[in-house]
Design brief:
This protein is α/β, with parallel strands linked by helices. The protein folds into two domains: 139 residues, Up-down Bundle (Four Helix Bundle (Hemerythrin (Met), subunit A)); 154 residues, Rossmann fold (3-Layer(aba) Sandwich), CATH 3.40.50. Strands 2-3-4-1-5-6-7 form a seven-stranded mixed sheet, with helices on both faces. Helix 1 runs antiparallel to helix 5, helix 2 runs parallel beside helix 5 and helix 4 crosses helix 6. The radius of gyration is 28 Å and the shape is rod-shaped. The chain starts with 11 loop residues before the first helix and ends in a 24-residue tail after the last helix.
């Protein structure tokens, strides 16, 4: 996932301790005699500390993704959760500090070469370097919090996607498990209390991802806060088709009319192709509904393969994955609903 390569961002105090301890070790075991050896030792200490500062700060900037080239789905989620402009400003401050430290180190190396005793000059340089680090400490703390938040986002890739929606217990997770042939990966959005299930399957050497979104698309929009609504809108940026599952048996605990109202709200929110199916066709209390594209049962497998084919046809022509294994899917008997 794009945010996983971001390492923990250290505080200014942690960087200062690391750099100055490493600089002190350059003197370990050395006998300092005469002007040249004093100059060499102090230059080595200053350059060691400066290099640790500049390398660590440059790595912080480098490991964050380029937000200008970020997929709109992740850009919008990152903006919702931590603020893209805030991150850009914080990264700009860290980049400035890295370049400023390099500049100061070169300046003070020159100064040490002009004096009889370079140690006071080196200590002055250390003071200036520490001041720069302390000045960006708030940016370092912010970036570490941003990193911890962004790493919790699920691994949603830029590939053909099926988004599954509907009230809880209508069979969404069972459908995802059925067509992916395995238990989907569960990942938690930072703004929901439930995990987002993501599974994959291959067809004709094309990989498809299937996303069940509990906590996002399983209750009325009137119960949402602004952050959740923005997160829902981010899904519009995916190359996706939406599957809405209704439970006409009402064994899920929600009346048909309530499920239809949620469907109406989701239709108004999304600009992607949509398929509406009725699940639990195996139950005796199942009812045929108007305006449904297909009746299915995730227990017996009835209609699942037909729905999958319809969903694939609704997705715009995807790019093929070279040398991807072709996984043949067949319906299996499920033990219950989720």
């Amino acid at each position: 996932m794009i945010f996983e390569k971001i390492h923990t961002v250290p505080t200014s105090e942690e960087l200062i301790n690391k750099a100055f301890k490493r600089a002190s070790r350059t003197m370990s075991g050395k006998t300092i005699t005469g002007k040249e050896s004093r100059l060499s030792a102090n230059e080595s200490m200053l350059l060691t500390a400066a290099n640790i500062f500049t390398d660590n700060l440059a790595n912080i900037v480098r490991r964050f993704p380029s937000f200008d080239n970020l997929h709109p789905f992740y850009y919008e989620l990152a903006d919702i959760l931590v603020g893209v402009e805030k991150m850009k400003m914080a990264l700009g401050s860290v980049d400035w500090a890295s370049r400023k430290i390099h500049e100061i180190a070169r300046e003070y190396v020159g100064k040490m070469r002009e004096v009889e005793n370079p140690e006071p000059v080196r200590k002055e340089a250390f003071g200036r370097l520490a001041s720069i680090l302390k000045a960006i400490n708030k940016d370092l703390i912010f970036l570490n919090k941003a990193r911890n938040t962004l790493r919790k986002l699920p691994d949603v890739r830029e590939e053909p996607t099926i988004v599954v929606a509907g009230y809880p217990n209508v069979g969404k997770s069972s459908f995802v498990s059925k067509i992916t042939g395995a238990s989907p990966e569960i990942a938690a959005y930072p703004f929901t209390t439930k995990g987002v299930s993501i599974g994959h399957f291959f067809r004709d050497k094309i990989r498809y991802q299937v996303m069940d979104t509990p906590g996002l698309l399983d209750r009325p929009m009137s119960e949402r806060n602004s952050i959740e609504l923005q997160a829902i809108s981010a899904i519009n940026h995916l190359d996706a088709v939406l599957l809405f599952i209704i439970d006409p048996s009402e064994s899920c605990g929600y009346e048909i009319e309530a499920q239809k109202r949620l469907l109406t709200e989701i239709k108004a929110l999304f600009e992607m192709p949509m398929l509406v199916v009725s699940n639990k066709a195996d139950r005796p209390e199942f009812k045929d509904l108007e305006g449904i594209d297909q009746n299915i049962s995730t227990v017996t497998g009835e209609g699942i393969k037909e729905v999958l084919e319809k969903l694939i046809r609704l997705i715009p022509e995807p790019k093929k994955v070279t040398e991807a294994p072709e996984i043949l899917w067949e319906p299996e008997v499920d033990r219950g609903y989720q």
